[in-house]
Amino acid sequence: MFDKPNCPINQKPENPFIQSIKATFKGLWEIFRGFLVLLIIAFIVRYVVIQPFVVDGPSMQPNFQDKEYLLVNKTSFLFSSPARNNVIIFKYPLDPSLDFIKRIIGLPYEHLEIKDGQVYINGTKLDEKYLQFGQKTSVGDNAILDITLKKDEYFVMGDNRSGSSDSRAWGTVPKINIIGKAWFAVVPFSYFGLIK
Questions:
Q1: Is a pLDDT exceeding 70 seen at residue 109?
Q2: Marked catalytic residue, from 4, 20, 22, 59
Q3: Catalytic residue at 102?
């Protein structure tokens, strides 16, 4: 006596054409689902983790060039505070629709002075190795700038001191305006790599 296969009585086999259509739709659904997952990951990376930024103007020369394409790490300050010498991208305090790039010079609660072409933090002259040799820091018509930063305030300046609109002109940057830290240089290719 032979065992019969387990199949419902009177069930007709499915039409091969319909099987083919179902298989095609299943394949298309898998492709669409994979594309959707990639799209969600790209969205999270673009708007939560990494943001592209293009340097506009000479204010950060010689360390960052006009039209240089950077990637900004937006998670840099989730678990740590911005530090002196960090190059940050932030929303311009006078017009938050604009993004600026500058270097952090003064930190919250610090006393900052600019006099005789030099920067002093809490009375100690700041060693600014990122500036071109011989470059001085002026403060426009005033001979001296003297400021004590408040909580969550940062004093920022461009590396090209004579060609930068920065905290000397329009004041400090609130921490809430900081987007992230300049992390990776993409273009020009001679600068390609992590930003030190």
A1: yes
A2: 59
A3: yes
